[in-house]
Amino acid sequence: MKRNIFTFLVLAALVLAALPTGNVLADADVLGPIASAVTPTPNPATVNTDVTVTATVDDSTTGAATIQSADYSIDGGATWAAMSAVDGTFNGVSENVTATFTLAQAGDIQVCVRGTDALNNVGTPVCAALTGQYLYDFDGFRSPIKMGVANNAKGGRTVPVKWVLTFTADGKPVTDPASVVGLWSYQVDCVTLVGDPASAVEAKSPGKSGLRYQNKGKWIFNWKTEKAYSGTCRLFFVEFSDGQNSPTVQFNFR
């Protein structure tokens, strides 16, 4: 009887010795950290300025593993960029994280954040909306130009081009001529309006009657068209210093 008990104890000890010595719960952890409080600042943000995104990634309820890293995406998850721990080191089961990027586009953007724990479990991305806007708000073109239709002109004649430019943030008028990089036009098919924007040539003005500021954000440029434009169609636009172009307007030259 004693011999059987001894044999049982020996076998039990061998079985226990063969068991894994690691954290069984950790070995079973297959869930990534939970991201929350995703916040892009400022919002709205101006194109070509910096935006800071902050968030929290927390693994305390999904395995309690240390946070290994966090990253963010602004293109729907096609690419991801690394974030930093606010305290300087990823060494806790919950981390506040941050990153800064330069906004390159206007419109509605989704800023997404995800975390990865020490077991390489990647969490589900959590996103927040960011509105990108240009520095200037363009209103034009004004009469005599009509938007959305073909404008008829005679090659070689001067066309007054008018618009209003204000700051998007507060609506104050833009008075600095440096806001305008250039005025351009390029030839297109008169039916399909297909052309090569890369072939655009800069618009000229007669004499000294170039770009002029009037008042209340109103601008005027006298466009001296070329005689060679007769019998062709062109699209015209203004390029601004904040990175945007005005809408194009069609001209049919006779």
Label this structure with key terms.
Immunoglobulin-like, 254 residues, five-stranded mixed beta sheet, mainly beta
Describe this structure in words.
The protein is mainly beta. It folds into two domains: 110 residues, Sandwich (Immunoglobulin-like); 118 residues, Immunoglobulins (Immunoglobulin-like, Sandwich). The strands form four sheets. Strands 2-9-8-4-5 form a five-stranded mixed β-sheet, with no helix packed on it. A five-stranded mixed β-sheet has the order 11-18-17-13-14, with no helix packed on it. It has a four-stranded antiparallel β-sheet with strand order 1-3-7-6, with no helix packed on it. A hairpin with an 8-residue loop joins β8 and β9. The N and C termini lie far apart (117 Å). 25% of the residues are buried.
Question: What is shown here, in short?
Answer:
This protein has helices spanning 2-18, 24-27; strands spanning 34-41, 45-46, 50-58, 67-73, 81-82, 84-85, 94-102, 107-117, 126-133, 136-140, 150-153, 158-167, 180-188, 201-202, 212-213, 218-224, 233-240, 249-253.
